[in-house]
Amino acid sequence: MRKGNLELLKKINRDLVLETIRSQQPISRAKVAQRLNFSRSTVSSIVDELIAKKFVVETGLGSSTREGGRRAIELEFNPKSGFGVGVELMADGLFICITDLDGNMVWKDRSDSGNDFKTIYECILASLDKASISMDKVIAIGFCIPGLTNSKKGIIVDAPELGWKDVAFVDEMKKYLAKPIYANNDVNCAALGERWVGGAKDLENFIYISIGMGSGVGSAIVANGNLVHGKDFMAGEIAYLIQEEDVMRNQVNVAGQFGVFEKKVSGKSLADDESSVQALFRAYAQDDPQSVQTVSHFVTHLSIGIANMVSLLNPEKVILGGELAGYLEPVLAEIRSTVDRMTPIRTTVETSQMGVEAGVLGVIAYAFDQEQNVI
Description:
Layout: H1 3-24, E1 27-28, H2 29-36, H3 40-52, E2 56-61, E3 73-77, E4 83-90, E5 93-100, E6 105-111, H4 117-130, E7 138-145, E8 148-150, E9 155-159, E10 164-167, H5 169-173, E11 181-185, H6 186-197, E12 206-211, E13 217-223, E14 226-227, H7 244-248, H8 262-265, H9 267-270, H10 274-285, H11 289-313, E15 317-321, H12 332-342, E16 348-351, H13 358-370
Parallel strand pairs: 4-7, 7-11, 12-15, 15-16
Antiparallel strand pairs: 1-3, 2-3, 4-5, 5-6, 8-9, 9-10, 12-13, 13-14
Helix pairs in contact: 1-2, 1-3, 2-3, 6-13, 10-11, 11-12
């Protein structure tokens, strides 16, 4: 067997052993070998390597066998063997989160110091120091970007909130950090956060729709377990969805301007600011006619968009996130029934429960996924 193929086979076997320990822990070497139909010597060799790298730990003797034989040493995955750092870039600063390999948050902090490269580097170092984690235990660092991002090349194509256009972000950060670095769009990151530790945990097909308090509306699509990026990394740009009534009114999408659908379902379509949105939903709860009409129009337009995406993609679940999601609970039942009426393809519609951590957790999950070879 050629060396390259042999190394690939070893990695596949190592991944299978680690995943078996991770999902079935505590478990003995013998049971791992039995489940995978591997020889005991192969499993022992792989386990010894994983223990040396601290990804697996021995936790003591298991229970006696029915035959009264020797008790086997049991194994568990060690999530503290490595850590990930997620950094969300915002117009007014940074949000930094550190997790172990299982997604357990060990540190989070927000900084308004700025978002230039040197400041980002210094804030990461400060967060690691406060969390008592050394840089050599960091597996990878991910950046959550509020704008169009070429995640393969690490280029921020266009991020108006940051005032950045065609910035080779990953290459610039590598001048400061000698670690694997990744970047992705914030809505994509939020979807991956949901899949890692949120409402879409372990789902293979789902849609995440982010509705901002201002004018922002976007979505991320996970199909067959993979994030859909599109040719120009613009998959999920639902702000540009359009209907016949829009065309008849000559309301079409123009580059650089708010999308037609965005004008109907963003927070801005409901009210001027967050306090106004709060007031609107309070009045809606009290059956104020004007408020009921405004919210009903919003629900109809949003449901049409969801129904069309459901018909196209057949997702297991649709998750509504973003700043506006926290206000949608009173109308969630109506959204669900309207979507069900508009498409015969069944799905589940929920609001996100993750809050502001979704993006940074998601970009850590994305970075870990890209760095599977480190184990």
